[in-house]
Amino acid sequence: MSKHVVRFVPENISVTVDKGTTVLRAASLAGIEIKSTCGGKGSCGRCAIKVVDGQVRYEKGNRSKKLKDQGLDLACQTFVEGDVVVEVPRDSRLDKHQVLLENENRGKVLAEKELDLLQEYEFKPLCRKVQLTLEPPTLTENASDLTRLQAELRQTTQCKELIVGLPVLQKLAQTLRQEDWKVTATLACMNGITEIINVEPGHIANSGYGLAVDIGTTTVVVYVVDLATGETVDKRGTYNKQAKYGDDVISRMIYAGEENGLQELQDAVIATINELTDQLLEKNGIKPADVMVAVTAGNTTMAHLLLGLPPKYIRLEPYIPTATELPPVKARELGIHINPEAWVLSFPAVASYVGGDIVAGVLATQMARSEEMTLFIDIGTNGEIVLGNKEFLISCACSAGPAFEGGGITFGMRAMTGAIERINIDPNTFDVQLKTIGDSKPIGICGSGLIDCLAKLHRVGLIDRTGQFFRDRETPRLRKTDDGWEFVLAWADESDIDQDIVITEADIKNLLRSKGAVFAGIQSLLKSMQMDVNMIEKIIIAGGFGNYLNVDDAVQIGLLPDVERDKYEFLGNTSVKGARMALLSQDAFRESIELGHKMTYLELSAGTTFMDEFVSATFIPHTDLTLFPSVKDEVEQGKAG
C-alpha cells in the first residue's frame, strides 16, 4: 500500500500514513488531538479541518452548511489519497486544560463541603516502610536471606503471610549486605496479604508516597499523598486523552472493538495518568521509585480500558462486565511511571454502568453508615444515582450523554477558561449578559452555563416547555438558519473565536433529553422503593459538574428534585476522595469491597418505568407540575413561557 505525508499547520508537524487513512487518524499519530464526540463516525460534526493542499477523498458525514461555506471538512470523513497539507482550526482542537479542583462560592452555587475523610477509619495506609536491623548469618545461624528478612518482619509488624516478587528477590542478597544488614522494607498490605515490594539498603527516612486517581470519562485527576502523614502533597487534573476516540463510554466501547482500538484506548488513559504524575512528582521533588502504591476509581468501562479488558459485552444485553472486582496489578505491567513493583488497585464496581467511582463516592460520603435517607447524584456523561442509608443502598445509571460536559452542543465545552458559566437575559429587550470562567472573552459554554441558559430562555419567554423557540420574539439574536433556529449568546466581536456563539434549538432538545434522563433515573429509584421525594433527607451532588451548578436553575428546568435547598450538599470529586481514603486506610479499602457487594443495581432498561418517566421529564420542568411546586405557579401563569 502506498504511503503519503500529511503535514499539519501551523505546527508544521508531518506524519507518514497509508493511503486511505483518515485525517483524524493522521492527526492522532501526529499528536494533534481533534474533537470527535462520536468517535470518528461522522455524526457529531465536531472534527472540522481545512485541506489546504493535496489529494483527499471525502465521505458523507454530518457536515453543516456553515462548515461547507467556510470550506471545512470533517477529519473523520476525509481520506488521504496523496501528500496533504491540513489546517486544524482552534474550534476543532481538544485543548489541554487544567481541571478546576477548587470551588468558590458563587451566590446560589453550592459551596464544596469539606470532608473529614478518615474520621471513621484507622490511619493504616495500604503501603508503609519499615526500618530493620537484621542479625547477620553465621555458620550455625545459616537461614536464607529471605527467611531471615521474613522472620524479622513478622516479629516487627505482626504480619503473618509475607510474599515477595522475583525483582525484589533478585537484588535481596546484595541489598542486605550493602549497609551491614540495615535495610528499609516497603510493605504493601491488602486483605490480610502483605507483599514485600521493595528492600533498600540502610534506614531510609522518607516515608513513601501513593497516588489516588480518578479516571473519569472526560477528565483524569491525580492526588499525590504522603503515606506517613496522610497529607495530600499536590493534585492536578486534565482531560482524558481517550476523548479523541469519542466523548462517551459507548463510543469508546465501539472503538475498542476495532483493530488495535483497545490498545490505543489503554495507552491513551495511561498516557494521561503518566503526564499528570510526571508533572506532580517533578514539581514536588519526588522520585518515581518512592511512589509505592496507586488506587484508581473509575466507571466500569474506564476500569476495563485501564487494564486492557474488552468492554464489548458491557454495552450488549444483558450488559455483563468481565469483572466487577479487579485484581491488583503491578505498575510495570501497565507502564505507569512510579515504582515498577508498586501495586495499582482498582475500586470494585457494582455493575456494568455503576462503577468504582460511585463506590468510592459512597465511601467518601459515609452514606452507608448514616441514618439519613440520602440521594447521591454524580452527573457526567452518565448520570449515576444511589439512594439509601445504613439499611439499604440501591443504584442505577442513566445515559445522560455528554451534553452537560459540552459534548454534542454546538459551542459546548468543558469547564475551563473562557467557558460561559452564567447568563442573564433581559426579559424586555432579550439582551444578554455573560459571566465566563476566568472572566475572559467567551469561547463556548460549559454544562452549568447550559443549565443556566436553558432556565433563563424559559424564564423570559424565549422557549416553550418543549424547548422550541417562540418564533415571533422581536430580537436580532433569534434567527433562522439553514440548520434551524438559534439564539445568539455572544456576537463575534464579543467572543474570542471571531464568530457568533449561539445555542440552537437542536442543542436545547439535546439538553432536555439529558436532564430528562437524570430526573427519570431519580424517579425510577424512588418508585422502586415506593418512596416519595420528600422522604429524602439529604441530596449530595458529586463531581466537577457541581462546581458551578446553580440549584435553583437546575430545579427550574427539571434536572433536580424540587425540595428544600438546604437538603443539597456539594462534595466535589468524591471519586478521588474515596480513592484517597482507601489509600490511607486498609479498613476503608475493605469496606469499599463490601459496599460493592451491598449495593443493589436497578437495570433501567428492564420494564417500562424508566421510559415512561423519561418521556414526562423531557418537558420544562416536567409534565407533572406537582413535582415542582416552587416553579408551578410561574409556569401556569405563563411567566416562563
Task: Please outline what is shown here.
The protein is of the alpha/beta class and 641 residues long. It folds into five domains: 3-92, Ubiquitin-like (UB roll), CATH 3.10.20.30; 127-201, Roll (Ubiquitin-like (UB roll)), CATH 3.10.20.880; 209-346, Domain of unknown function (DUF4445) (Nucleotidyltransferase, domain 5, 2-Layer Sandwich); 366-401 and 513-636, Nucleotidyltransferase, domain 5 (2-Layer Sandwich), CATH 3.30.420; 403-511, no CATH class.
Strand segment count: 27
Instruction: Quote the beta fraction.
Output: 15-25%
Write the CATH fold name of the largest domain: Nucleotidyltransferase, domain 5
Portion of residues within helices: 25-40%
CATH class identity of the largest domain = Alpha Beta
Q: What is the domain total for the residues? A: 5
Give the class from helix and strand content and strand pairing: alpha/beta
The end-to-end distance, rounded to whole angstroms, is 60 Å
Low-confidence stretches: 103-108
Q: Round the mean pLDDT to the nearest integer and report it.
A: 90
Q: What is the correct CATH architecture of the largest domain?
A: 2-Layer Sandwich
Number of DSSP helical runs: 16
- Biggest sheet details: 6 strands, mixed
What sort of overall outline do the alpha carbons produce when their principal axes are compared? globular
Cross-sheet strand order for the largest sheet: 12-11-10-13-15-14
Radius of gyration: 27 Å
